[in-house]
Every structure is written in C-alpha cells, then in structure tokens.
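Re: your question from the hallway

Yes, I did run it. Sequences:
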Amino acid sequence: MNMPTQNSSRLQVENLCKSFTLHNRGGRKINGFAGVSFSVKPGELLALTGPSGAGKSSVLKTIYRTYTPSRGTIYLDRGQGRAVDLAACSESEMLCYRRSDIGFVTQFLKILPRISALEVVAAPLIDIGTDKKDAVTRAAQLLRSLHIREELFSVSPLTFSGGEQQRINIARGVIAPKKLLLLDEPTASLDEESAGRVLTLLHELKKQKICLVAIFHDRDRMVQVADNEYHLEQNN
Amino acid sequence: MLLDIQYLSKIYGESCGHCLEQTGDEHGRAICPGCQSVVAVNRVNLRVEKDEVLGIVGESGSGKSTLLQLLYRDIKASSGRVFFQDMLDSDGLPVDILKLNLLETTVMRNKLMSMIYQNPRQGLNFLFSAGGNIAEKIIGAGERHFETIRSRALHFIDKIELPISRIDDYPETFSGGQQQRIQIAKALSSSPKLLLLDEPTTGLDVSVQAKILDMIRMLQQEMSFSMVVVSHDLGVIRHLTDITVVMRNGSIVEYGLTDQILEDPQHGYTQLLVSSIL
Amino acid sequence: MTETTFGFFDEDAKKEIRRALLKAISLPGYIVPFASREMPIARGWGTGGLQVTLSIIKEDDVLKVIDQGCDGSVNAVNIRDFIVSTTEVDTTSLTAKATVIQTRHRIPEQPLTENQILVFQVPVAEVLTTVEPDTARQKNMHAHREYSRLWVLLYEDTAQYGDSRISNRYPVEINDHYVMDPSPIPRYDIPRLNNNPALLLFGAGREKRIYAIPPYTKVTPLTFVDRDFQVETFPGISCKRCGTSDVFFDEIQGVDGTYYYCSDTANCDSMLNRKQNAA
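Structure:
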C-alpha cells in the first residue's frame, strides 16, 4: 500500500464520505459529510471549519475509526515511506496505530471516576511501555506546565471544573509522542490564560513535526496556530 | 496473532448435516428447521492479537458463552479449528487445540490460557483453600517445590488485595466479590497468555463490580496478557475491551473497535443493543 | 452337597481373578476391575485379599495371615482357617517360611524375598476418591496422569501443618506413572514398598478392584522436591515384651502409663527367642 507521492504530506485524506444507516428507523440514511479531501504535512496544523452540523467532529472520528468510513482513503505516513490507509486497515492494526501514532483529544473528557488525574495523564505512556514512575513524573511536569494545581493531581478529574478537565484531556492526548494528533475544540471552555497555554503547547507540537488536525470554536484562537483551513459545508 | 479461530461451530443434537447453512443470523434462528438441532455457535471466525482485549456481547442464547467454553475446551466443538500462537507439534506445525487430549488440554489450561467463570463455584474448587486453588494451577503447570508454590500463592493473594493471612481459608468463608478475586488470582497464577472471562462481574453489586474490573484492567496492563471478555453489559465491555464482537443466533453480526461499536454501530441488531443502554 | 473345590472357587472363577491379576501386574499401579464374589465372610472384612489369595495359592504354598502385623488376631485366624479348610496348605507365622502372606495394613518387618507374594486387603482402592467423586473422571485423570489435586492436598497440609497429615494410605507413584492407594499401611511401611523383591498384590472386595506392584518396582510417595518424606519414628522406645527398637510399634494405654509392643508379632516372637537363647 503506497501513498500517492506527489507531496510530502503525512496525512492525506481523499474523497472521504460518511453516512449513517438507521436500521431500526426503516433504514433511514443520514449524511455525515461527503467528498472531504485534504492533506497535512508534518509540523502543520489544519483547522476544520464550517457551520455546526457540517460534520467537523465526524471527520476526526472517522480518521480515528470511531466512525467507520463509508468511502474514501485516509493515508497516514508512518515514516520511512510506510504509508497505511486508515480507512482500510484492520481493527487490530488500527489499535496499534492508535497506541503508537495517532492521538485524539476529544471534546469531552471520558474517563472512569476512580482514577487520579496523574494516572489518567500517565496512562498513554504506560500503554506504550514506559516505566510507571517515569510516566508519572512526565505527567506531573505536563500538568504543571498547563497550570493544574498540585493538590488536584491525586483527585479524579471528574470533580474538576470544565477548563481543568479540558487541560487534563489535552495533557492525556499529547503526553505520548504521536505522528498525528486530532483535537476537537481544545480551547473550548478555557479562559484566556489557559487557552494561551494550550496554544503555546500546540506550537511546540508543531515544532516537534507532529501533524495536527483541529476544530476550534473560536476563530481568533484558530488563526494563531492554524497553517491551513478546510471548510466543510452543510450537506444535508 | 495469538489466537486464530476458524469456522468454529457447536451443534447440540443429532445434526442433519445441513444445520449450519440453515441457521445463523441471516436466517434469524439458531434451531435447524430440518432436524431441530440447536446451533449454539455457527462457523465463527475470529482472531485475537497479543495484548488485545476482545469483548463479546449479545443477548442470552446468542452463543457467546458457548464460544468461550469451546475455546477453553469445557465443551467439545462440533467442527472448526483453533490455533494458538506457539502451540506447535514436534514437526513445528501449528496444533489445532480442539484436537488436544486431556493431558495436553490440562497443560494448555495451566500454561497458555485461564478462564474466569461467572459463578466462582465453577472456577474454584470449594474443597480447597484459597491458596490451594491457586496452588492447583501452579502445580498443574509442573511446579513441585513447596516453597515456590507457597510464595507464588502468597504473591497473588496480595495482588488481588486480600490479606495474606487469609490464604489458608476456604472459599465459602469469603464474600462473592472476594471469591471472584480468588478466581482471578488462580487464573493469573500461571501467567497465562490469554485470559477468558465469562460475565466476570454479573451478579455483584456495582461498587464491587467496579473494583474487580479496575483490578482486571490493572493486572492486564501490568502482566500484559490478551483477554476475551463475554458480557451482556455494555458498560463492562466499554471499560475493558479494545475490540468488540456482537453475536446473535450463534453468528458474529458485527466486529469493530469498541468505541466504533458503541458510537457507530453498523448492524441493525447492534444499533438496537446500543440504543438500549440505560 | 458337593465337595468344595481346592481354594473354594471353581476354576472359572479363579481364571477370571488371575486374568485381572495378570493385567494388574502388567500395568503396575493400574486399577483392574474384577467380578468380586460373595464370600463366607462379610465384605469389608478382607474379601478382596481373600479372593486374590485363593486364586493364586497352590498345594505346596506356605501361608501366613496377619492383621495389623498380628498372626493371632481374630480376623487373621478366621481367614487363615478358612483358607486351610479349602486348601489344606501348611501355615506358618514365620515371615521367612511363608510363600503367600495375606496382610491387613502392615508389611512384615523382616525383608521379603523373590519367592514370596504379599496380598494386601484394601478398603478403598481409588486414590482419587478424596478429590474427585466421579469414577469416569477418575479414570480419565489416571489415563492422563492428572494428579494436581492430590498435590494440592499435600500443599494444604504442608502449608497449615508443616507436613502431610496422612498417617496411612499415603499416595504413592508407581514406576513414575500411576498414583495409587497402598492400602492403610503406616507411613513407616511406604519406603519398604520401593524396589521390593516380592510380588505385591492388592485386592478390594467391596469395590471389586485389583491392582499390583511387580517385584523390584520403583515406588515413590508424593513429596515436594524441597521436602523429605517423613515416616513415624520411635526415638528411645523399645518393645516391652522383646526389647527390640527401630521397628513399628503398637501403643497400648495401661493404667500406669503407655507401653509399646512390636506391631509385627512374629518378629517379636523371634526376637524374644533370640534373646532367651542368648541368655
């Protein structure tokens, strides 16, 4: 499986479509999005824009395989010319890519209520085999850089404010080195200062040649980090 | 590939020879119209990779528990083949574990895979102490040094957060949740490559259930084994698994990443199942 | 009324038992079913051993029968009398003189020879009964040498009491294969099963089972690698009657204390004789 070689993109999405069939509603079809094509180079941030309901979040979920793509290709360059089509790979392969290559910062933090903030953030590092102590040290550093108060480290993030939860979510998404990071409204519900820190973090990730696809609710914040923009139109 | 299941079937009753083609999800039935045999598992193909956690969901009678029991060889398969990584014969060829004799099955159960049953009475020998139950597994794997057996049993009692002073107590003196934890200790004491769990927390109250699921997850990360979890509870599936299989009428109707199954179910039955979450 | 045949049984009955015996000897430690007959004594009183003895005894054999090491106890006397009444063989209490010895729960102190057969009376033939009640599964477990549960019993006793609590019927592995019940002989006798020159036959009348240990067979009690098999010891104790030490003793509670007597009465007699002759 080879990625089209006309450019040096890390991620290349071609004619991606997603529709939902509701079998229990008489087979009713709902269109998510259609004909989405874009490419992102390493160290670039592509912002997905468009009206509410245009399918921005759905595009991210489809790249991550939380939604199964209906049509199209999603080529990810895994380095040394090894490109894979995320739209066609097996579930087991996708699981490996998720562990090693693809991060997803979802809109809302979905975690178990019994696990401390530090453990939540350290988990992706432990998943890829990092020593538990090192992972926790790294998680603590990251949380400090995002201005999470130390007394919260041992508490479940579900008791945190929306802004704090959002930062935990981001920390968890970026702690392990990835090739591609998908971010769904990373600065939503953050005050100016916290949002600023997140934007700084995104700049750093770009310097590390990580490829980013993000949705912003706030255009002002978006323009501070985005290199390109892909606009989705309402299609149904 | 750790486990490779090929065309695995289980028919209860005298088969007319056409049961498999006339039942399954596409026919909407598990009972053969020709001979009234019950096809509990119908030509299941499934692979489990190393460190992967696979969930099997489906309503009662869908064949999910039967599938697990076929893998653990608690019941005999009607047809199909199952291969396990590194299970090779003397010529280096893969061995079909459905063809193992009792001794080989015992070795397989003591070295490669372990099962945790819904009912601790199935997974534990109530005539043996907690430590004795763990010892049975370690002895079965060939250990004959008392001190080694004892220290490993103590290690696992500690791992499942029971006071080690209770190691010589008998299962009936423990609560249901504790019995389930002893089952976990027993299952893991032989460092299996694959853990099979049949409704591991069904019937336990929610706080105990959460604790046990957390413990299983933690141990899975620490000891890195693969798991196949059968549950009718999508909460358990979401908590534990990476990949989910949906079964109905003995067939697999959907296979996908667990978050995909829950957020973008493809099959009508899966959509119904997911929409039924409380 | 017809005259009794030699050895009580007709030839067909003997043949059936002998076939079971031959199979048992061919498969050391393997339990062979046989058609246990109604005997003139009640089941549970040594009918298994009796049937084995009657089917193998010949006119020129010399018979010894002991019960817990004693030639003179009621059961031993009755069984011996019965065998003699149907065979008219010579009897003896001297271990060395006997060619067939029927025993309940002991092995004579004096070492046996290749010319001797020791017949054990067995109450419970199946060693797995304590851990698996289902006979079909027991057979399967034997076939696959799946004895983990016996080891678990040993583990539990060792963990809680420092050693196995089994005082008799200690499980033994025969020729690195089957594990069997050696009948309720004390631990003291277990090492004496190993590499024994005599043919050892086991008969369980009530359970209709026969098994055997051929001469010079390896017999090992189940023991953890890092533990030694312990037998009963009687430090500083000697027989009140003959003065012998280093044998297996019976403990007798008298009004003025505990006395010890040789369990093997024939051995006690010869020790006493030797002492008196020396004096």
